[in-house]
Structures are given as structure tokens and as C-alpha cells.
């Protein structure tokens, strides 16, 4: 399933733009990733494979915290993340694999989440 979706993708670099907070449970506190050409193209490649068309613009990110928090609590969490790693903004790392999970968005414990497949990006 995901192997065919990632066909042709090679490992690529990602860079953290900032620690940010969102407005709902699944985007409570996250690392905002710079939308570089490689990041955006990888998303478009996989979305195209599955026929997915989003009604909103793509916001690459890595979630740090799933939780229902007040705005004040979210701000404290962002500040704490920045204090724990003062160089988090600008951190670069390689994306070399994708994982596909079956998720139930009603399950806020995340216990029902199931890893379906992991695919290493090798350009084939």
C-alpha cells in the first residue's frame, strides 16, 4: 500500500522552522517544518497516489503533544520545548522512511492506533 505510494521517493532533508501550537487536539503543540520543495513534493506525490485533495493548504509538521489544553497551557508547552532545546528552530534531519498508521480520531488515548507498514525511501 504505502510502498507503491512512495515509489520513486528518495530520502530528503527537513528543517524545523519553529515550535508552534494549534487550535485542536491533534495539533496541540508541534514542530512546524519548513515547506521546502522536497517536503512539499513528497506530500504531493503521496497524496496524488491516494487521490487525496485537501481543502486546506499543506502544513508540514511533527506533533509533539496531543492534548486538549488552554491557550495558556499551550504557550507554556511551547516555551518549555524551546527551553529544553534552544536550537530546535533550525534543526535539520533526514526523512528516510514513511510509516502508515490506521487511526481512530475519536480515540484520544491513541491506544487503538495500529502501525500498518513502514517503507524506506530508496528512490525505486
UniProtKB/TrEMBL annotation:
Q: Which SUPFAM superfamilies match?
A: LigT-like
Q: List, alphabetically, the Pfam families matched.
A: CPDase
Q: Where are the transmembrane segments?
A: none
Gene Ontology MF terms = 2',3'-cyclic-nucleotide 3'-phosphodiesterase activity
What's the domain of life for this entry?
A: Eukaryota
InterPro entries named among the record's database cross-references: Cyclic-nucl_3Pdiesterase, Cyclic_Pdiesterase
| Biological process terms in GO annotation | cyclic nucleotide metabolic process
In its UniProt entry, what is this protein called?
A: Cyclic phosphodiesterase
Q: Which organism is it from?
A: Rhynchospora pubera
Amino acid at each position: 500500500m504505502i510502498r507503491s505510494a512512495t515509489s520513486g521517493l528518495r530520502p530528503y532533508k527537513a528543517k524545523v522552522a519553529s515550535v508552534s501550537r494549534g487550535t485542536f487536539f491533534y495539533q496541540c503543540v508541534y514542530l512546524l517544518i519548513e515547506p521546502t520543495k522536497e517536503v512539499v513534493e513528497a506530500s504531493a506525490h503521496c497524496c496524488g497516489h491516494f487521490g487525496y485533495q485537501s481543502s486546506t493548504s499543506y502544513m508540514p509538521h511533527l506533533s509533539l503533544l496531543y492534548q486538549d489544553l488552554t491557550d495558556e497551557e499551550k504557550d507554556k508547552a511551547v516555551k518549555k520545548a524551546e527551553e529544553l532545546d534552544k536550537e530546535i528552530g533550525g534543526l535539520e534531519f533526514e526523512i528516510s522512511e514513511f510509516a502508515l498508521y490506521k487511526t481512530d480520531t475519536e480515540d484520544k488515548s491513541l491506544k487503538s492506533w495500529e502501525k500498518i507498514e513502514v517503507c524506506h525511501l530508496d528512490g525505486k
